[in-house]
Write a structure and sequence with these properties.
single chain; alpha+beta; Alpha-Beta Plaits; 4-stranded antiparallel sheet; two-stranded antiparallel sheet; 3 helices; 6 strands; rRNA-binding; ribosomal protein; ribonucleoprotein; Large ribosomal subunit protein uL23
């Protein structure tokens, strides 16, 4: 099994995701090869909470230019986590 900290890359902290926190929903960038079951287990192990639902979204790479050089941004995967009603809020997001 993969290490849970290799699956969860970093949280997504925006105005929209901070509004979602009132509904016990959190957003993370995750490994592009991770599936919903692995993401659920990783969040439950790292934060010691119960996950009710996991929704994922693949973000495609986009073409970018830097001067005369052409390239692409990295492809990413977002995971939207819904906690159960009896779970406590994540300590990571306290004070945000």
């Amino acid at each position: 099994m993969k290490d849970p900290r290799d699956i969860i890359k970093r949280p997504i902290v925006t105005e929209k995701t901070t509004d979602m926190m009132a509904e016990n929903k959190y957003a993370f960038y995750v490994d592009v090869r991770a599936n919903k079951v692995e993401i659920k287990k990783a969040v439950e192990q790292i934060f010691d909470v119960k996950v009710a639902n996991v929704n994922t979204l693949n973000v495609r790479k986009k073409p970018k230019r830097f001067g005369r050089h052409n390239g692409f941004t990295a492809a990413k995967k977002k995971a939207f986590i819904t906690l159960t009603a009896d779970s406590k809020p994540l300590e990571f997001f306290e004070g945000v």
